[in-house]
Design a protein that fits this description.
Layout: E1 2-6, E2 17-22, E3 24-25, H1 30-39, E4 46-48, H2 53-58, E5 64-66, H3 86-94, E6 98-102, H4 103-108, H5 112-131, E7 135-138, H6 150-159, H7 164-179, E8 189-191
Parallel strand pairs: 1-2, 3-4, 4-5, 5-6, 6-7
Antiparallel strand pairs: 2-8
Helix pairs in contact: 6-7
């Protein structure tokens, strides 16, 4: 079954997709990040990356990192500053942390900013494939008009360089963190069923 992570409460559900309302931990400093992660009572911890990618990937309580490519640094001549490298990918693999690709972030940008973000995501897909890191594709919609069809999200994954199987797995990997890895779901996560 496909699962999509969203950032608002949604009342209905489609036939083949499950909407999961989840809170994303955002922080500006490593002290604030550690405090929020350690004090979190949620079973599924999703942290927003950027400048704190290494600290997020070193923490074993984190399940999913989203926005790893949101770095304020400029790109280099021969590769993009995508926020992930071989050391961080090995940490993600070791600590069983998935890298999520946020469709809503691409949707809101325009022009050169969008192309730069997509290029960074493409590089992160190659790094995740090379080092065996789980990938997740989600809409992270903030309202009902930003929700996307699973086939649209799969197409987005293939644009980023995933194979069709990797794109399909990217939609189904959320259920791995809900069923196999975690036993119960509490405050921060709510599965919406009809």
């Amino acid at each position: 079954m496909y699962a999509d992570l969203i950032s608002f409460k949604h009342e209905s559900i489609g036939k083949n997709i499950m909407f999961i309302s989840a809170n994303i931990i955002k922080a500006d400093s490593w002290m604030e990040l550690n405090k929020k992660i350690n004090s979190s009572k949620e079973e599924l911890i999703i942290a927003e990356g950027g400048e704190l990618n290494r600290l997020i990937l070193e923490n074993k309580r984190v399940d999913i990192i989203v926005g790893a490519e949101k770095s304020k640094k400029n790109d280099f001549l021969h590769y993009r500053n995508s926020g992930l490298n071989q050391v961080l990918c090995k940490l993600a693999r070791k600590n069983d942390i998935a890298v999520a690709f946020n469709f809503n972030e691409v949707l809101k940008l325009k022009g050169a900013g969008r192309s730069q973000l997509i290029g960074r995501m493409m590089q992160n897909v190659r790094m995740c494939r090379k080092y065996g890191v789980r990938m997740i594709i989600a809409s992270f919609a903030t309202n009902k008009f930003e929700l996307k069809n699973p086939s649209d999200l799969m197409s987005f994954g293939m644009i980023l360089g995933m194979t069709p199987k990797e794109a399909k797995d990217g939609l189904e990997n959320v259920s791995y963190f809900l069923s196999d890895k975690k036993e119960k779901i509490t405050d921060g996560l709510r599965i919406i069923k009809k």
